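Quiz preparation item.
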């Protein structure tokens, strides 16, 4: 089995919300591929394609399938975690990768975009601390300071919730920690090019892959 065949099987299990089948597939095939390869070419690819199909109304991907895909991906990442750490340590990337706090802003419960970003970051050697969904601005800031993180990535699926992102930057300024950069992402930023001004983020990643370009500018 090659990586494309693994992707096709995983994609079909995920699309059909076959949770146990998807996890069992990865458990059986983890020995045959690098964890980074599975993260990028199977997990991230599946999430990205399902999200795109859902947004465009293609292949009738429902909101329930999106939620299931995010849950499956989250648990698959746990399975891949130990092997990924070993791979990154051999490349001298693991513990030295910058720490990034990620989560969905307060009252936002749509985690698909966050899971895609998390997958990409892990596969590229970053240390990711996932706070989850519906996270207050103060929690983002306190965790970033506690963990000595350089970046906060905050996701929002709706315009109304995205406006709460500005409170993260304002709280950082109160704490005299403007050195911690705030990167915002999610669907609203794809369709409103001026939204970044309202949320007061340092950067906007309207597509998940853009976060890697942003981070490389700080290297």
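Solution:
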């Amino acid at each position: 089995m090659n990586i494309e065949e693994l992707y096709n099987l995983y994609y079909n299990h995920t699309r059909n919300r076959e949770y146990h089948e998807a996890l069992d597939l990865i458990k059986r095939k983890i020995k045959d591929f690098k964890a980074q390869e599975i993260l990028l070419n199977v997990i991230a690819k599946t999430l990205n394609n399902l999200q795109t199909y859902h947004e465009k109304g293609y292949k009738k991907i429902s909101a329930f399938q999106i939620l299931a895909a995010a849950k499956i991906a989250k648990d698959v990442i746990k399975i891949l975690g130990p092997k990924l750490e070993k791979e990154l340590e051999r490349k001298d990337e693991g513990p030295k990768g910058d720490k990034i706090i990620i989560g969905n802003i307060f009252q936002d419960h749509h985690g698909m975009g966050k899971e895609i970003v998390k997958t990409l970051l892990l596969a590229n050697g970053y240390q990711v601390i996932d706070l989850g969904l519906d996270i207050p601005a103060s929690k983002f800031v306190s965790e970033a300071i506690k963990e000595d993180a350089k970046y906060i990535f905050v996701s929002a699926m709706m315009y109304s919730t995205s406006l709460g992102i500005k409170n993260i930057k304002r709280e950082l300024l109160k704490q005299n920690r403007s050195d911690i950069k705030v990167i915002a992402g999610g669907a609203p930023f794809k369709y409103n090019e001026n939204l970044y001004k309202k949320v007061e983020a340092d950067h906007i990643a309207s597509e998940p892959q853009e976060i890697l370009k942003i981070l490389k500018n700080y290297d």
